[in-house]
Design brief:
Layout: E1 2-6, H1 10-21, E2 25-30, E3 45-46, H2 59-65, E4 74-76, H3 82-93, H4 97-111, H5 114-123, E5 130-131, E6 135-139, H6 142-158, E7 163-167, H7 169-175, E8 185-190, E9 193-195, H8 197-210, E10 214-217, E11 221-225, E12 231-235, E13 238-240, E14 244-247, H9 253-257, E15 267-276, E16 287-289, E17 294-298, E18 303-311, H10 320-328, E19 347-353, E20 360-363, E21 370-374, H11 384-395, H12 404-407
Parallel strand pairs: 1-2, 1-14, 2-10, 4-18, 6-16, 14-21
Antiparallel strand pairs: 3-9, 5-9, 6-8, 7-8, 11-12, 12-13, 15-18, 15-19, 16-17, 17-18, 20-21
Amino acid sequence: MRTIVIGAGAIGLSAAYYLRKNGVEVTVVDPAPPGSKASSHNAGWIVPSMSAPVPAPGMMLQALRWMLRRDSPLYVTPTFSPQFVRFMALMLRNCTTARFEAGLHVLSDLSAETLQLFDDLAADGIRFETHADPLTMLFQEPQKLEAHAVELETVAERIPGFSWRALDRQDLAREMPLVSGGVAGGLQSFGDRSLDPASFTAGLAAACTRDGVEFRLGRPAALQQEPDSSVSVVVDGEVLHADRIVVAAGVWTNRVLAGIHEKVAVQAGKGYGYDLPLQPDGPTHPLYLAEAKVAITPLDTKVRISGTMGFGGIDERINSVRAGGILTSLPSYFTAWPDLSEKPQPWTGLRPMTPDGLPIIGPLRRRPHVLVATGHAMLGISLAPPTGRLIAEMATGHAPGRHRASLAADRF
């Protein structure tokens, strides 16, 4: 049995790894080096505690309020593309309490085993920088802290070994002196992790090579329909045939599917970030600035800060004002950190977003031998191993039925 995986990001590499472990002959195709796009340009969080869909009650209203701010953390660049308009309408429809809670349950279940799967990857010799420090969410608005505490209660019921505690101002002053007095409180979770995403994708690619996965890099792949209605993959003029095809191309998924006249409900969500030098008075464990929507990840050689979510099509250009909004949000949370006397250079990554905030994992209805794995939003690293394992189970006919309809490509 042969499977071609299109996409060498965290999701595609995970799919290739688990397929190979199931005895499948695997070829990975990507025009870029493994993990060079959003898979290495992200916060690097493995976060069962944040297994929540992006569409949430009040989310679109907040985006409209921020429309006039050039550095807002959430923004929509208006376009009259019918596909984009339909996507945003569907997302608005999903910004209800009932749909949010349903999505939270699905994502929590997907996340339930992710920590064990990362441990299994490490036990198999995959080397990557990882940290198990607690994650602290800082809130300036007490009502938002209370609302998220309710979410953590749901997560704690579904994630083995997960726990959390609330921190008031006195706790923060005692335990985190770098936090400013304008922060009302925090929520600290135990059971999440962080990693250097570039080291993870590099380690996963090396393990795939070790296990016999073939890589064809540097050339884009296109799908085409054969006269017998089967689907093949064309790479630099060469036609490749396989029993299964997995499209894990992130925001570029629809460009790959265009050759067979298929389409999934995915739009690009642009995120930005900076890598700052380590400082003696800087953070020592991951932080999330709730209102600013900024993630802070201390790593061995740097501190990564990332944030923003912009809807505006596939555009990898860097808007310095948008990126700079991450930096300008920091003084309201910290007393002195960071030292920005030397201005850092921003990077960007495009997250594949779906209207309901749940990933697309599964076969196309009209072409069941073509499987899609995309739409993980900001949980691509966190959900990479469970997604890869699920794709391998589907491709080999051993997939469980749980949540299959919630993740189906044609659910919209």
